[in-house]
Amino acid sequence: MAEHATHVPGLAHHFVSMEQQKEAGTLGMWIFLLTELMFFGGLFLAYTIYRTTYPEGFLYGSHLLNVPLGGTNTVVLIVSSLTMAMAVYYSQLGEKKKLIFFLLVTLALCFVFLIIKYFEYMSKIHDHLFPAFGTYHPSTTGPHGIPLELQQPVRVFLWIYFLMTGLHALHMIVGAGILITLIYMAQKGRFTKQYNSPVEISGLYWHFVDIVWIFLFPLLYLTGFHVSGAGH
Amino acid sequence: MATEVMQSAEPRTNYLNAGHTVKSWLLTLDHKRIGLLYLFSISAFFFIGGIYATLIRLELVTPQGDLMTAETYNKVFTMHGVIMIFFFLIPSIPAVLGNFLLPLMLGAKDVAFPRLNLLSWYVFIVGGGMFMLTMINGGIDTGWTFYPPYSSIYSNTQVTLAGVSIFITGFSSILTGLNFMVTIHTMRAPGMTWFRLPLFVWAHYATSLIQILGTPVVAITVLALGFERTLQIGIFDPKLGGDPVLFQHMFWFYSHPAVYIMIIPSMGVVSELIANMTRKRVFGYHFVAFSSLAIAVFGFLVWGHHMFTSSQSMYAGLVFSLITYAVAIPSAIKTFNWTATIYKGSVSFDTPMIYALAFLGLFTIGGMTGLFLAAMGLDVHLHDTYFVVAHFHYVMVGGAIIGYLGGLHFWWPKITGKMYPEIWGRISAAIVFLGFNLTFFPQFVVGYLGMPRRYHSYVPEFQVLHILSSAGASILALGFLMPVFYFAWSIKYGKPAGANPWGAVGLEWQTPSPPPTENFTYQPVITTEAYEFEHVEEIKNAGKAEALQTA
Predict the structure, then answer these.
(1) Is the pTM of the predicted complex or chain greater than 0.90?
(2) Which residue of B19, B28, B446, B524 pairs with B107 in a disulfide if CB–CB is 3.0 to 4.6 A?
């Protein structure tokens, strides 16, 4: 059986069967996602500690963020998860055209997210709210002003914001690279009904990156959203 | 034990003569060759780290800081620690012996992801190369623990570069762990059920778990430290609202379990050595298997015992202290079960067994002194003294490195197809054992008397103990150097080993030495549990027949 199986296209020589190869690939991605979870986990821990230490700073900092833009990005990502799921579905049916279409839509949504994120970052830097390189000079008045006594705690919130969303955006960029590779492979007709696990495994990655954002959005943007009078 | 010479197993292709070009090594996807690539790289790091250890012991011969300045000394012990931990101990057994043996023991052709396996070596080399760059640029002086705010604000050395190199090297460890875990789950041969796995495999499963769950946390921690240093964002800087103790929590969340990354594989090796060298089934197989997992799990819950004196709440300390005590339970289960295995076994005193026995004694001392340090009251006295230094060297050298050397001797015939000279092996094992104890036992005493770690000068009363320690270090160095020469000698002049020179059980002994590229020329099917010595003659003969067939 092993002799015969080596002739299956897409099956690496050290696996006995397609099922074994698929199982290994899927388990590998799940374990990788576990490491990603621990990687982000360190920052979620820092978030928890500092939010407990500086509740007002976090409340105030949260109100500096642009909820409509963040909300739009949340919707963009959730839709991209749907289109990615569709891509996986059509890869399993072996429908090349639909697979490529949904991969392209996912890629487009990825870029929409990154462009919106870019404008969000730029507006923060413009308001002197970037907490590094000594560029953090927020004004004390105006819509983006911070009272003097809160400037330090808000700074803590802001570096957590930049570090967490920055790492998330980096994962989106890696995801874009993966999508482009998948589109190229699909174009070459590499995926069939029998061999499509790269699409499925990449889908797992994509959903994970989405889920991280699903946690980041409320934790960063919506802190104390219900508290009237907080912030501006 | 008499070594059997099987001439018939000579002229055939194996993984070593399958290709002779440099390219065939640097682009190899064969787990056995990757294991050897790791062997050469980590051996280089071991001897660089050893040079730093030599400098430390030379400085401490006299009470005055006369060989080097305090600043230089800070760099020397930091470089020793970082190199030995991140570039030698953590990859040692998993990346060398694990890589070589895991697929063989499972009856697989390779690990689940051969490309990822090769990538992990390249990542290791890039990280290691960057650390060498750090070394050339003057090194770092923060201690291997990188505590801020010293590391983030005050140190003028190459902390960022060192941090990046450790960040990168961490991924090599993660990739190895991921690969092993998937391999153990999906690549087992027909009939190889979980409870037929050799205990070496169980130990590597537990180790992989720590590598997967712990390493990402230290990655984000050193990343944060790097940002802190370069961008001044104040993650751990109290002046900017940060908390330096948060670094300690995050660092030790990985770095305490990392100790188990170093010791658990060694325990796996010792299980194999003791079973095969006493020709008995390991007593309480299931307990030994699960105790590896228990150590891995408990290991994640004890990091706070590094911070009994770092403003941690007393009640948190109490819990961390209790859980630390709990780690002693699975460790003791292993030690007692190994002892019970030896009892009434037909014990051979070949080199691997000498190392295994040394491990039993030294690990017991290392583990028991760990309990001293887990007791909060006593730790206040012993914290940051040479007692701690002696304790972790008993675990890391007396445990991890002794196990690694024992394993290297045991599987050397499998790796190279040649026997090392047994008499030299025994002599060097004895020298390592004596030199090690002479080096580190006096450090328990000097630490208990109050000598703090990381000082380059000390009060004259301690000189005798330090001279003993330095003398021991030179003996230990000799013991570590000898295998380099006789292993190298054996490759050319050693007696051919044959498929199974030890009469050992285990799948890796049922294929010729050195194994063919695809590991087995047949599909292994497993019908018995591990360590079935009743059938050993049968297995031996089967191995012989197999070797003859493929010749």
Answers:
(1) yes
(2) B524
State residue B234's pLDDT score. 84
CA distance B466 to B471: 8
CA dist B253 → A32, A34, A206 (Å): 19, 16, 28
Q: Does any domain span residue A230?
A: no
Q: What average pLDDT does the segment B409-426 reach?
A: 97
Q: Mean pLDDT score of chain A, rounded to an integer?
A: 91
For residue A124, is it within any domain? Answer: yes
- Hey, are the CB atoms on A24 and B186 less than 8 Å from each other? yes
Please enumerate residues of A whose Cβ is less than 8 A from a Cβ of B. 2, 12-14, 20, 23-24, 27-28, 31-32, 34-43, 45-46, 49-50, 53-54, 131-134, 152-153, 155-156, 159, 163
Q: Do the Cβ atoms of A24 and B113 come within 8 Å?
A: yes
Give a yes or no: residue A6 inside a domain.
Answer: no
Q: How many domains does chain A have?
A: 1
Say which of B114, B182, B227 has its CB closest to residue A31. B182
Determine the 3-state secondary structure of B188 from DSSP: coil
Chain A: closest CA distance from residue B242 (Å): 7
Is B20 part of a structural domain of the chain?
A: no
| Domain count for chain B | 1
Q: What is the pLDDT of residue A230?
A: 46
Alpha helices in B343-385 (DSSP H): 351-374, 376-382
| Whole-number percent of chain B with pLDDT over 90 | 88
d(CA B32, CA B314): 49
Q: Which domain holds residue A202?
A: 39-221
Distance separating alpha carbons of residues B428 and B482, to the nearest angstrom: 6
pLDDT for B4-31, tens place per residue? 444 444 457 899 998 889 999 999 999 9
Two tokens at B402? Answer: 């002794």
Has residue B236 been placed in a domain?
yes
For chain A, the straight-line distance linking the first and the last C-alpha, in angstroms and rounded, comes to 70
CATH assignment of the domain containing B80: 1.20.210.10
Q: Which residues contact B378 (CB under 8 A, 6 or more apart)?
A: B372
Of A70-79, A210-219, B521-530, where does mean pLDDT reach its minimum? B521-530
How far off is chain A from B192, nearest CA to CA, in Å? 15
Q: Which domain holds residue B170?
A: 7-12+30-550
CB contact under 8 A, A39 and B523: no
Give the chain A residue whose CA is nearest to the CA of B237: A156
Cβ contact (<8 Å) for B216 and A38? yes
Report the range of poorest mean pLDDT among A21-35, B6-20, B151-165, B499-513.
B6-20
Residue B540 has pLDDT above 60, yes or no: no
The chain B residues in contact with chain A (CB within 8 A) are: 108-114, 116, 174, 178-179, 181-183, 185-187, 212-217, 219-221, 224, 227, 231-235, 240-243, 246, 249-250, 523
CATH number at A151 reads 1.20.120.80
What was the pLDDT predicted at B542? Answer: 60
Q: What is the pLDDT of residues A21-64, one digit of tens each?
A: 999 999 999 999 999 999 999 999 999 999 999 999 999 999 89
Taking contacts as CB-CB distances below 8 angstroms, the residues of chain B near A14 are 108-111, 114, 187
CA distance A51 to A72: 25
